[in-house]
Structures are given as structure tokens and as C-alpha cells.
């Protein structure tokens, strides 16, 4: 947006209202062809009082744009037609003058208008019926440019529907020339787009036969349709009309001569009709083909819906496994996913019930109707089976197909709802204070010095003996030099020019400088701005593309920028962004753990990362035997209080013992910071089987299965642990208990005769099966669920049945769907200037304005470059690091599968901040395909975020310095300044001669005799002094 106030002394009433602000804030469209003809709508305030005032005074991207009288709204809106642009013209602002076109009466838009070249590539489908009605998708590039689009098939229009950047959708009209190929052309304003594209009109489809020619009032029974040219229709529909009401249903095209439809319901009052009815019209909607809309050759008939009676008076039918369920009428039956064995008579069907036990609901589906006749209770100890009759009246001798399903809960049903419930349980008492945030010092250290637990800057300076006083004196003098900007800039310049000063050294120096200046953040900020200014100047002088600025961490300035945001955004993380980030982490972790995770490879059934997806078929069951792909539960005794109530823990029977221990610890200590709870390697898992029998379970022991050169980790299934088994975590035993043969008891049900179980005194009532150490010399390899693919001697057949890509990509999408809300919440929070009651941190506005100032200084007006600088500065430099590494913010443990999923989210975040278009194809990475439809929305959030920030009032140096002083005061005691200076001095001492040379060449440093002062420090710090 551009604003100016017209001076009162130079404003006449014919030009603009005195003292009023002239604004231009909406331009539509923002892109158009160079050929011109685009109608550009400009909206704003005080855009003239009469048309004559702006008639010849509008330019768009330096091209004359002729205002149109009919589109002009005084003071509010201008519509103008673009002239032709030269090939050298690329982009520019909108300029509007009111009255005389002098600088004081001119407004310039904030946004740019771009000239683009629309192109055509393909169209699909490439043929349709001669009667028209085909929705044709034309693909290409820059197809959303301009204001008007028209599409022609030879000399007749294809009715425009809608368009996007890479596509135009139009509806074909009836052919004026009969069948044949028609050339395709597209006009975008005055630009004519042509390519060798053809659309073929073919003969209209016909309907020859329906089978069967009946349904029931509720419809949804299958109808096989035979005809010709059926495959030229994209979305065929079947229709019925009765008493003035029309109903439709879907069809699927099988081939050019066959399609399968679901009969539409007949809109009749079910309470008033118990006889067969025929619709007034019955036919098909096949694009604009009218000849099949109402068929005269069919007598399609509707019969009343069947009426089903309950299985028994009580609603529960007692059966023995394998006993038959008798249902009257003729139909086909499935029990679960298995077809049952049936015996058919004229009015009855005998169905052998599946080999199941327990209570199961029976669901009957007849066409579009559902009815539950009751529940079957299949029990091995029930009396001899009785039979139940389900009467179905009103259908006559009509053959109806319906399915009987035994409904068994599946862990995959309503996955998002389950996940929401789990997250709510986890965070219900996390009101912000309960989220395990690291304190300021721990958080800062994990970002500034990743991987270093005990850094010297965290403790007081350690100097031995009598040298302490002299070293402290030297460091205080060195501190005075460090607080001199000219000195520190020369030191950094000298160090960065040394080939032996590595990227790691540069990052370390940047972190040491920020810790040394923690108490003087105003100075640190001024230093950072100077370093960034120098970096921008060098980048542009070396003819590097401006967009590459700040993309990598190759300089002290870039790492220091990361550190600066790290220190100043901690409060924003705690009060605002931390909550959705923690929820996303928890959501990913819990969703991954709903399915198998290979503890060796880190691969999982549910994943966002294709690289970490289990591609083999893994059979896993509930511990209670309730079916496939289930989550069972064990009851765990609290490790710190054996007398407290048992805690239910969700586990899978394919979980390794270490995974079970982790799940128990996650459940028991769900609100406890990770560093403050027991660790799985320090605990043993003890199975308490009753009657004093206890067994310690391990990942590997003497019962571990070994096949050729592969040894498989033990799982709960290996130990035959049942559902609701009682487990306890106990401190890890240093040695195996000796087994007294006289007290060993063996359970015949177990196939592991080598497992020792014994009964004795309470303290000795546990057995330990000895752990097997990996045999590296023999080359035996360990595996859990899938064998590591990296072993070269492994044959393809050893990997199990490899699923095709469509199957596991579908699983990626399903996982993505359950996590979508959490990703959206995080992105929305980050890309919002005022969210969750928190205002935009001053540091963000301040740094963005600084980058804009630098762009202005160097004459960079390309909005894409400015956008990229901001993205490289904050989202890609700070937020991506935090998203990929939530352990920098929270006291948590991040597994490899969670890390892989977070990397996909972080990559999506990066793509959302990019200004380049992402072209997707069959070889595109799966993570790009997963979020392809979401990224355009995310990009609009980023654009809006940057735009909102640009419109906020600038922060004065006085206000910023006050804020920085307060931050320095709050965290003045976090780091040891002397220790930080000592670490910086080690670099200075190593390259002292090179630094002195730079100091003597710098005019300001030479004037202040900084080289001499550094030599004084070196003398004081010398061990020989």
C-alpha cells in the first residue's frame, strides 16, 4: 500500500480532497499477457472525484492502462484496459495520478503487476459425445493470467467454467460439424494460445440392456448396463423420476460397452405403498446426451423394501461355534470378510456362522437399507444350538443380494477421532505450564551448541593456581576489546578469511559471541546488523543470485542471526507456538505407535516418510485374540508405588520388549519431563503370572529364534503374553538369578520349556532368562519385524510380500490426514501476527524492516527476492530447526520414526515459504505429493503474514533498545561471561598474527591502537608472563 497526504496549499477541489489520503490497496488480476487487453481493477480510496481526473493517468508496470468509464466508481475503483508491453518489460507497480501527474499527486501500489507468457500443454479427456457436455481440462502454465478467457474447438466455443495457474476447465458444446477432430485454441485477453491439441467428437452413447430391471424402494442395488461408447462419459449417473421428484445415483464405467450402476431410490411414501411401482421416467445422465435421459425400452420396476424381524425375543441369539443362522429369503451372505457356506431353499438360506466366540452384532444390508436383527452370542459351553428365523415380508420371490457382517472394532476406524481423544487425554492438564518446556538456559544451549551437554560457558572460569588473578585481568581487558565493534568486526573478518577456520568454527564463534554479549543485547544487535549488511554487500558484489542470501550457514553472521532469534523468541515459544508444536509431536508419536514399528530399522506401518514406511505385510493382533491389526492392553504396576492402582497400557503383540518398556514409561510418566523419569535400559520388564510366578522378559535370551544367520528380537507374541497381563518395571538386575531345580515349575501351555518359572520367597520369585550378546564374529544379524534391506546377501524373497507403491502411498496419505489438523494449527500459529493472545515479537518486525532497508539501499525491488530474504532469515533459519528438533524446546525423547515424520513437515514448511512453483510428476518425492494440495494455501498464509508485518508501524530504535535491555536483564545470569570470553580468546590467540594484520590495515582500529591493546592481552594471558 502506498499513501500520501496532499498538501493543502497545492490541492484544488478538482484534484483531490484537501488533506485526504490517496491509497491504492487492491489490484486484480496481478498478472497478464504482454499482448494487452487485460482489464485491471484498481481499488482504493480518494481515486479522484470525476472520471476526467484519472482518464489518462493510470500506468501498470510502466504500460499505459486506459480507464473504462463504465467500471469507474468515483474515489473507490478504476477499471482500465492494458496496452501492449515490450518483451523487455517484466513487472512493476500500479501508478495512479489524480489531476496533474506530479509526484505529490501520485500513489504507487505495494504489490507488483507481472507480465507472463501463458502456454498450453495437454487436454484431457481428448474426446466426448457429439451432443456435448464433456468437462475438458486444458493444462499449461500461467493460465490464470489476464481477465478474460475464451476457448474454441475449431470455430465454436467451449463454455468456460473455471481456471487455475496450470489448468482451464471448460464444457464442450454440441458439435456444429458432427463427429471428427477439432483444433483447440485459447484466448487470454489479446493473447492467442495455440498448440497441436485436438478434441474429437464421437457418436453419442446408447443404452441397449439393463440387468436386472428391478430394485427396491431404497435403491442402491447393482444394475449392469450394456451399451455403446459408454467410455466417453466421465461421470455417468442413473436417474429415476416419480411424482415430479427426481433421484440419481452413480455409475462406474467398466468398458466402452459396460458400466455398473447403483439403482437410485424411488421417492415413494413407504408407509403408503406395499406393491411394486414403476417410475414415471427412468434413464441416464450422460453429459448432454438427451436420447438416454428417459428410456422407452425399459420397464424398470421397484419392489417394497424387505421387513426383517429380530433374531429372538430378547434380541440375543445363543449359538455354539459353527452353528447355523437361518434367515428367510434368497440372498448371498458374507460374514466379516469371508463368504459363508450357504444352503438355499425357496424361502430360506442356511449360513454357517464363522468360527468365532463372544457377542457380535449382526448387520443386514439390503440395497441401500440397513437393519440389525440382533446380536449372536457364540459360546463353546452354550447348549446345543437353537435356530432363529428372520422373517422378511413383502419381497415376493425377488432375489436380493445382501451382506451379513460381524462387526469387530478395528484400530483403523475413525483414526482421527481416536487420535484427538488420545491427544486430549495427554494434554488435558497441560495448560501451558504443564508442557515440558526446557528452561531458557537449556533451550539456548541446545540450539547454540547442539550435542554438547556440559559447555564451559555454563560454569565459572576454571583456572589453576596463582594464574587465576592474572588470567581474569587479561580476560576483562579482552572483554573491553570485544565490546568495541571495530575490534570484533576485524576479528571476525580475519578469522573468516582463514581457510583452516571451518564452518563448524564459524558457528561456534557466533554462539560464543552471543553468550558473551547476553548482557548487552543492544550491542549484539548492532553488531549483527553490521555483519549482515557486509554479508549482503559481498553477496551482491560477487554476482551471486540475491535469493541465495542467508540460505545456508556459511558465515558468522548467518549463525549469529539464528542465535539472535533463538534468544528473543523463547517467550513467544512458551506463550504461543510451543503448544501446537508439542501437540504435533505428541500426535505423530501416538499415531506411529498405533501400528508396528521396527525397533531395528525404525520403519513403521504409519508414517509420513516413505523412507521409514514398512512395506511388508505385518500381521499383528490384539493380545486378547480379538482380530488382526489391533491394539491390546496390559496392566502395569507403577514402578514407584506397587500398592497403587494398576495402569492400563496400550501395546501390540508384535512390540519388542524394549518397546513395551517405553510405552509403559510413556503412560506412567505422561506428564513428567523425560530427563526426570526412569529410562527403559535401566529397567527390567517383569511378567507377573499369578501364584507368585514371575518372569523377566528380554529382547534377547536363550529362547530367541535363530534362522540361518538371522536372530529375531523377542516380542510379546514370542512370550505368548495374553491381553490384560500384569507387568511391572523393576530396576535392572546386574546378574541372573540362579535357578533352584527343585522350585522350577513349567506350564504345559508354553512351548518354551527352557523358560524357568519358580515359586519361593517373595524376593526370589522371579526368573531371568540369560541375555544373548550379539555374535559379531559369526555374522549373525538381528531383526525385529523386517530384515534390514541393506544386507547384500539378502535375497528378494526374504523380504516378505512387498506391497505395491499405491498401497503404501495410500497409507502415507491416511496418516497425513489424521495429522492434518495439528500441522495446520502449527503453521497458522507461526504465520499469524496476532494469535493465541500473543502479539508479534518485536524482533521479527525489526529484522524484516532491516532487510527491506537493505533491499532499498541496493536497489532490489523484486518482491520475490525480498520474500526469499525474509523466508531465509526467519522461517528457514529458525522455525525449520525447531520443527525438526522439538527436543530443543521440550524435555522429550525423539525417536527415529518421529524424526522422519517431522522432517516431512519441516520440508512442507520450507516449500510453503518458497516463491517458486513446484512442478509435480510421477517421479516427485512422496513428501512433495503428500502436501501438494495444501502448499498453495500455506503459501497464501505466508504472503499474508509478510504483508501484515510490512503494514505494521516501524519500531523505533529507542523502543527496540528498551526491549533488548529488558531481555538482557532477565537472563543476565544464564552464561558465564568470562568463560565465553576465554573460549573466544582461544580462537584469537590461535590466529593472533592474522588478526593483528587486519587491525593495522583498518583505519578505525589503527586510530584506536587496537592491535597494540590486543598484544597487551596476549602478554597477560601468556603462561610465561
Automatic annotation (TrEMBL):
<dbReference type="InterPro" id="IPR031148">
    <property type="entry name" value="Plexin"/>
</dbReference>
<dbReference type="GO" id="GO:0017154">
    <property type="term" value="F:semaphorin receptor activity"/>
</dbReference>
<dbReference type="GO" id="GO:0030334">
    <property type="term" value="P:regulation of cell migration"/>
</dbReference>
<dbReference type="GO" id="GO:0001763">
    <property type="term" value="P:morphogenesis of a branching structure"/>
</dbReference>
<dbReference type="InterPro" id="IPR014756">
    <property type="entry name" value="Ig_E-set"/>
</dbReference>
<protein>
    <recommendedName>
        <fullName>IPT/TIG domain-containing protein</fullName>
    </recommendedName>
</protein>
<dbReference type="Pfam" id="PF20170">
    <property type="entry name" value="Plexin_RBD"/>
</dbReference>
<feature type="domain" description="IPT/TIG">
    <location>
        <begin position="204"/>
        <end position="303"/>
    </location>
</feature>
<dbReference type="InterPro" id="IPR046800">
    <property type="entry name" value="Plexin_RBD"/>
</dbReference>
<dbReference type="InterPro" id="IPR008936">
    <property type="entry name" value="Rho_GTPase_activation_prot"/>
</dbReference>
<dbReference type="Pfam" id="PF08337">
    <property type="entry name" value="Plexin_cytopl"/>
</dbReference>
<feature type="domain" description="IPT/TIG">
    <location>
        <begin position="117"/>
        <end position="202"/>
    </location>
</feature>
<dbReference type="InterPro" id="IPR002909">
    <property type="entry name" value="IPT_dom"/>
</dbReference>
<dbReference type="GO" id="GO:0007399">
    <property type="term" value="P:nervous system development"/>
</dbReference>
<dbReference type="GO" id="GO:0002116">
    <property type="term" value="C:semaphorin receptor complex"/>
</dbReference>
<feature type="region of interest" description="Disordered">
    <location>
        <begin position="753"/>
        <end position="774"/>
    </location>
</feature>
<dbReference type="Pfam" id="PF01833">
    <property type="entry name" value="TIG"/>
</dbReference>
<feature type="compositionally biased region" description="Polar residues">
    <location>
        <begin position="761"/>
        <end position="770"/>
    </location>
</feature>
<dbReference type="GO" id="GO:0005886">
    <property type="term" value="C:plasma membrane"/>
</dbReference>
<feature type="domain" description="IPT/TIG">
    <location>
        <begin position="21"/>
        <end position="116"/>
    </location>
</feature>
<dbReference type="InterPro" id="IPR013783">
    <property type="entry name" value="Ig-like_fold"/>
</dbReference>
<dbReference type="InterPro" id="IPR013548">
    <property type="entry name" value="Plexin_cytoplasmic_RasGAP_dom"/>
</dbReference>
